[in-house]
Predict the 3D structure of the following.
Amino acid sequence: MATADIAHHDDHDHHPYGFMRWVTTTNHKDIGTMYLIFSLVMFFVGGAMAMMIRAELFQPGLQVIDPQTFNMMTTMHALIMIFGAVMPGFVGFANWQIPLMIGAPDMALPRLNNWSFWILPFAFTMLLGTLLVEGGGPAGGWTLYAPLSIQGGMGVDMTILAIHMMGISSVLGAINVIVTIFNMRAPSMTLMKMPLFVWTWLITAFLLIAVMPVLAGAVTMLLTDRHFGTAFFDPAGGGDPVLFQHVFWFFGHPEVYILILPAFGVISEIIPTFARKPLFGYDSMVFATAGIAFLSFIVWAHHMFTVGMPLTGELFFMYSTMLIAVPTGVKVFNWISTMWRGSMTFETPMLFAVAVVFLFTIGGLSGLMLAITPADFQYHDTYFVVAHFHYVLFSGSIMAMMGAVYYWLPKWTGHMYNEKLGQLHFWLTAIFFNITFFPQHFLGLAGMPRRIPDYALQFTEFNVVSSIGAFGLGIAQLLFVYIVVQTIRGGQKASDEVWEGSHGLEWTLPSPPPYHTFATPPQVR
Amino acid sequence: MMKMPVFRITAITSFLTGTAAFIAAPNLYAEWGLNLPPPSSPVAADILDLHNMIMLVCLIILIIVSGAMFWSVFRHRKSRGAVAAKFSHSTKLEIVWTIIPFLILVGMAIPSTNVLLKMEDTTDSTLTIKVTGYQWKWRYEYPEQGISFFSTLSTARDQIENKADKGENYLLEVDNPIVLPEGRKVRILLTANDVIHAWWIPKFGVKKDAIPGYINEMWVNVDEPGTYRGQCAELCGKDHGYMPIVAEVLSEQDFNAWVESQTQLQAVADEAADKTWSSEELMARGKEVYGQCAACHGAEGQGVPGAFPAIAGSAIATGPIDSHVDLVMNGRPGTAMAAFKTQLNDLDVAAVITYQRNSFGNNTGDAVQPAEIKAKR
């Protein structure tokens, strides 16, 4: 920092106004805001694609889109929701909250922070641009399996480049989180005193650094197979199509924990606040998170039980995958014990948190079922899998993020959101979510494969129900935007503590916090 | 599935009675299937037992865990005057809820391992069938019997496009089903020609990927004669949803008769390749064979812009015959255009090329004879 800055008083914001403020900002709060808005926009773009998928599946036969477009929609929906909505969303929360929670004035690497955000709009413009080029967008599934993804047109190359850019953005963001947490904590805030949201993000950041380069490697091999005469995945040239799946899922499984661990952190903040009781089993929460992260590196092949692995391989991956249930169970038990004999109130963030614990448990248990190799042969690549991962990703990650918005938005804006509308949004989301995805368990068991634009008649009824639920779920999210915009523009003044049971450094600051906070480190109990 | 899902369906249906019932009413084949289909082979039966057991354990866990949570949610409310306790850990409790789940997992792992060992044991089979996945059809070969044929979707295009009523087996019907003998352990070898596919019949309890360059194996032993249906389970491109699998299981006697009739058909086809065919005959046959090309190149040879080239007016179909024959026979590596010499016999290649050169506005007047194709093999 230049000496001139120190001479100024930090409470005043010195920044350009208008558009240039957002382009040049190095302020963690501004960057956090941009990440969150970006995530919300992508949530609606990906959501619109989901609406097209459900519209096509509303009835058997082809009505809305042709099969190739359908495949583009499923592929893009996943890529956009994972890389555009959930990951940037949690980076937004990390940007806003980590400095406030550990008593740091900003992120450790503010310019890098600016850059890692501004890569994203370009990456996603490129990804969405594939829909306009000849041959259309990627249509081989978000997993981009070779050799199918070798067949696509220029859209696949643009997707590969976009994935590289997203990966760079994620790794830079992760480096920033790690450096900030290790170097910028308030004095006397030891690692084992950090809020759990900070802990889960620290572990997530290490996962990101470990696996994003692996994804980059996989898609680079795809690119050279497509254009530069290599044969990594082409058996005719001595390559191996299954190699792609191994490399992809070595990234892919830690990736699912990248998507869920920060959500665990959010839940671990919200529940103690509204139970007015300290988090149960803090130490075991930290160790369980680390345990899940470790196991995530040795379970990848459970995504590919049907490729014909050797028996010993199938057994190893079945056992190691089942083990994940233990630390995950510990987390759920700790949350429930935190609620137990608390003094609970159910404002919108708490409603989301309770729903996440319940619905994530359903997703976790169906995950345990999927780990059982022989049974997985029946579930694999059916709607049972689709139901499972939406229970962990939507009612896990995304509903946790919504809870987090209601939880921290009053702090950020200085205004309370409309509690009645917030609760309405919660109930609509929770009910329509279940109408959409619970029937998909039955569809999968009855034998409906995933990623098909049209289906046999015996699957009609549950698809009708699922589509109706999906349209409701989509429309309900417009209410979310309305509530957020309303809260930013005005509303009842929020107190500094915001919540009666709030705990942690962020609640010692005014609501909204000044542009620069913790210029002098706070004291931690 | 058990109690809770049934309850849920009641809840969901009553919530949506109007709409859902209205839309589903014309559908005579309505099924609210809730669980895996009834098994037709020992493996499927074992999996169903295993699935029901795990499902039950998971439901009990869900009821206990969420029961505790909702009990707390309703009882420990501030509005009911609950005062927050101060406890924040209990080593004893934490050890208990680490060990108990672990023991439950061991209890699940033992039967799962047993079923898996049985599934993976392909020894002592009495018949081998090779299955090859293509975009978007299956090829079935019986190496010991010298039988080989393709199996493609037979549902009419009009049904898919909602111009005709959908039949009972909409999207689950094929021209030539795979034929299996009843009560015999059949080994199935799986591979693919272009991209990865997966062969799956739910009632058989087997699903395995068909991967180019790999030969995977699995086995089935079907209890009863009948027709069994399934679908490709691995995304394989545009028509992934349109490559069903149908198995016809016959008694030992009927199966032998079927083998005999197939061998005779093969002999007739071989003979046909040696004679000279008239243009009309070639065109008629070519039109039939063209159904395979239409999946990508369109029923009118119009193609799909940007993805699949048109045949109507194309330089290939109106240019030199040799390069047209070469393209159809050897395909174009790195694209979805397969080498059809491995898929079609001499007559079919000759007929389809003749048809392409004289349809959709192409009028070269050429007629390609099977003998010319034979010479190029």
